[in-house]
Specification:
This protein is α/β, with parallel strands linked by helices. The protein folds into three domains: 4-147, Response regulator (Rossmann fold), CATH 3.40.50.2300; 158-326, P-loop containing nucleotide triphosphate hydrolases (Rossmann fold); 329-469, Helicase, Ruva Protein, domain 3, CATH 1.10.8. Helix content is 48%, strand content 13%. The protein has helices at 4-12, 26-38, 49-58, 75-85, 100-108, 121-151, 162-174, 191-200, 219-227, 244-247, 263-275, 301-306, 312-318, 335-350, 359-367, 373-388, 400-408, 426-444, 449-456, 460-469; strands at 18-22, 42-46, 63-67, 90-95, 113-116, 181-184, 209-213, 252-256, 277-279, 286-288, 292-297, 321-324, 353-357, 390-393. A five-stranded parallel sheet has the order 2-1-3-4-5, sandwiched between helices. Strand 1, helix 2 and strand 2 (42-46) form a beta-alpha-beta unit. The chain starts with a helix and ends in a 14-residue tail after the last helix. The modification 4-aspartylphosphate is found at residue 67. It comes from Nitrospira lenta.
């Protein structure tokens, strides 16, 4: 996101902002046109509202500076009409009355600011510059939000393995629900990514997603972080502070490592889930919130319940919709796709030119156990990209410990289907076996779709369609894993 900011700023600053001045006084129009043009702005002027509104219809206007009293219609009505044409226009009102009532009316109509007549032209320049900066920040925020939503599209959950297909299907079904979700899985399996997918694919996507790492915040501070505190509630509470639940109002709160929360705090969290209300630390006023709760843990909460380390009633409240993120060792067919994704990302971030992996190196990485899961794989690829900088990654570039651990692991054996007393679902088993075959073919083909189709003796278009149904981008590309 930091890399995106200069691009957005440069794009926004490529053309001079267009300012429209509407005033029936010729002297005011001339002074503002001369002053603002000297600042490098493009300035249009109009003697009445009708002419000014026509200018907005014909060409983009960034800033509107209009008199309060105009010969045809009121300046506030001008603002309303202009806003209906283009909601991005920022309005500034000039008034000779200078009363509080005029200012209030202008703000209610959507004006950014107002200036009183007679005015110093430099004062108008200052207000216009503030308005342009506000508009730039608003546009930048809009583009950043759009970029974030793109980043967390469901298609970004990479994988064709059966465990990942199940996660994707689940996220698709529950994303737009307000139900509480509990994400369980080992460290590094992408629990936070799943939480963000849930938020940014829901109706709450334009509201905040507020994360809280319950394991990283000291117990004495966690209650204040969650619920806020009133001034003087404890030593050091110099002012009233909003908590994370208030900040997330209308959006989503993500309680990471919720299993680390103390029993006393679990009681207070339970109340928030049940009643959607709480009091700040040291306060008595009940605060209502509309917030979706998504929690995550790498611990076995059911075992913790049995050991009396986690409240049973809270577990049931959190576990309304459970999602389990699979460890990387259970989704080997996804490893080539993840490696390709990380190589592209780090090549872009580090300005490097790694062309791909040699087949032997890819085979070693695919066979590795990855106890740190996706996070460990991501860190490994970043390290390799930084050290190698360009060319093809080979076995010699991989850490020695990876060779030894991979060599010591037993080879995967074919698994046979075992019938239970209730039998099996034939279509599910056939689909599962097909997924395994496709995943293995993609691994053998080093991620090259055409080669994988040859290995499976199917048309490339057939394989592409199957990959698309599994949420995998199979468009023609420069091969990340050349033969």
């Amino acid at each position: 996101m930091r890399q995106l900011l200069p691009v957005l700023r440069n794009k926004y600053l490529m053309t001079a902002p267009h300012i429209l001045v509407i005033d029936d006084d010729q002297a005011v129009r001339d002074v503002l046109q001369e002053t603002l043009s000297a600042e490098g702005y493009t300035v249009s002027v109009a003697a009445d509202a009708t002419t000014g509104i026509q200018v907005v219809k014909e060409r983009p206007v960034q800033i509107l500076v209009t008199d309060f009293q105009l010969p045809d219609i009121n300046g506030l009505e001008v603002i309303e009409r202009v806003t209906r044409i283009d909601s991005k226009v920022i309005s500034i009102v000039m008034t000779g009355f200078g009363t509080v009532e005029c200012a209030v009316q202008a703000m209610k109509a959507g004006a950014f600011d107002f200036v009183t007549k007679p005015f110093d032209p430099d004062t108008v320049v200052v207000v216009v510059k503030k308005a342009i900066e506000f508009q730039r920040l608003r546009q930048e925020n809009h583009l950043l939000r759009k970029a974030v939503r793109e980043q967390y599209r469901l298609e970004q959950l990479i994988g064709i393995s059966e465990p990942m297909r199940q996660v994707l299907d689940f996220v698709q079904k529950v994303a737009d629900s307000d139900s509480t979700v509990l994400i369980q899985g080992e460290s590094g399996t992408g629990k936070e990514l799943v939480a963000r997918m849930l938020h940014f694919n829901s109706s709450r996507k334009d509201r905040p997603m507020v994360p809280v790492n319950c394991g990283a915040i000291p117990e004495t501070l966690l209650e204040s972080e969650l619920f806020g505190h009133e001034k003087g509630a404890f030593t050091g509470a110099a002012q009233t502070r909003m908590g994370r639940f208030e900040l997330a109002n209308g959006g989503t709160i993500f309680l990471d490592e919720v299993g680390e929360m103390s029993l006393s705090l679990q009681v207070k969290l339970l109340r928030v889930i049940q009643e959607r209300s709480f009091e700040r630390v040291g306060g008595s006023r009940t605060i209502q919130v509309d917030v979706r709760i998504v929690a995550a843990t790498n611990q076995d909460l059911e075992k913790m319940v049995e050991e009396k380390r986690f409240r049973q009633d809270l577990f049931y409240r959190l576990n309304v919709i459970p999602i389990v993120t699979p460890p990387l060792r259970d989704r080997q067919s996804d490893i080539p796709l993840l490696i390709e994704h990380f190589l592209k990302r780090f090549n872009h971030m580090k300005q490097t030119a790694i062309s791909g992996l040699a087949p032997e190196a890819l085979e070693l990485l695919t066979a590795f156990h990855w106890p740190g899961n996706i996070r460990e794989l991501e860190n490994m690829i970043e390290r390799l990209v930084v050290l190698k900088k360009q060319g093809l990654l080979t076995v010699a570039d991989l850490p020695e410990k990876l060779h030894k651990k991979a060599a010591s692991q037993p080879e995967m054996k074919d698994q046979f289907i075992r019938f239970t007393e209730d039998g099996i679902h034939l279509s599910n088993e056939v689909e599962h076996y097909e997924n395994q075959l496709i995943g293995e073919a993609m691994r053998k083909a080093n991620g090259v779709t055409a080669r994988a189709a040859q290995l499976l003796h199917v048309n490339r278009t057939t394989l592409v369609e199957k990959l698309k149904r599994r949420g995998i981008d199979a468009k023609p590309r420069v091969d990340a894993f050349p033969n």
